[in-house]
Amino acid sequence: MATSSNNSPALLEIAEVSKSFGPVAVLRSVSLQVAKGEVVTIIGPSGSGKTTLLRCVNFLESYDSGSIRIDGKEVGYRDAGTRQRRSERDLAAMRAETGMVFQSFNLFPHLTAAGNIMLGLTKVRGKGSAEARAIAEHWLARVGLAHKADSLPAELSGGQQQRVGIARAVAMEPKILLLDEITSALDPELVGEVLAVVKSLAEDGMTMVMVTHEMAFARDASSRIVFMADGGVSAVGPPKEVLAAETTNERLRTFLARFRASHF
């Protein structure tokens, strides 16, 4: 069985995954293991394949070759060798194990905050409406929005909408939470409230893989940091190691230079 860097069995195993869009190779033989309870942050320049990798883990994008397994089960395909795609029912069940929060909030505009959270609980998890409502209220309280349960997305700030998005994902009790640039669409003053929720989940032991440009947050919240460049993993290690000013990785040093003024 594959293991992560801390010698625990890997919950997420990405092995030699490649993905192209037409003639453009976006992922080039990417391999990564993530253990239960780890917070792994992916950084890198635009176009390096970060978001595509997350979308492959959730099978919102198919991958051309390689293997992605969660808890030992191949994602997207019945078998990595035959590339036989899973049924839509199987895919829905698999995606429920990998909660994803997007940079755009993706809330259903006609549903309240509670309604957005309840939808997956009733349709995918098979919960009754009363139980789903109780779970929704619990998670809304957890992200500081108990008083907004019956508000529509249009009545919420961007930061509040993103916190509903996080609550919706974790309410499904996924094995892994995927976070894709969840603060990039927010005004700077709203970023902190969203990152505080994520840090709280990390402290509770939620397994997370996140893409972010918030370097100080990545340093403080991550178990490991992965630097991607040109569709591949260029560096991986503990935050202090990867973010070190004296790194010998030229691509990494150039990338980090733009953030040094923020004193991360």
If you average the pLDDT, what whole number results? Answer: 91
Distance between the termini: 36 Å
**SS class:** alpha/beta
Number of strands: 10
| Rg, alpha carbons | 18 Å
Low-confidence stretches are none
Quick one: biggest sheet?
6 strands, mixed
Q: Write the element-wise H/E pattern from the N-terminal end onward.
A: EEEHEEHEHHHEHEHEEHH
Global shape:
globular
Strand order across the largest sheet: 6-7-8-3-9-10
Share in β-strands: 15-25%
Structural notes for this entry:
With about 260 residues, the chain is an alpha/beta fold. A hairpin with a 2-residue loop joins strand 9 and strand 10.
Features:
single chain; alpha/beta; 9 helices; globular
Short structural description:
With 264 residues, this protein is of the alpha/beta class. The protein is built from nine helices and ten strands.
Provide the fold topology:
Layout: E1 10-21, E2 24-35, E3 39-43, H1 50-57, E4 65-70, E5 73-74, H2 88-96, E6 98-101, H3 113-123, H4 129-142, H5 158-171, E7 176-180, H6 188-203, E8 208-211, H7 215-221, E9 224-229, E10 232-237, H8 239-242, H9 250-257
Parallel strand pairs: 3-8, 3-9, 6-7, 7-8
Antiparallel strand pairs: 1-2, 1-4, 4-5, 9-10
Helix pairs in contact: 3-4, 3-5, 4-5, 5-6
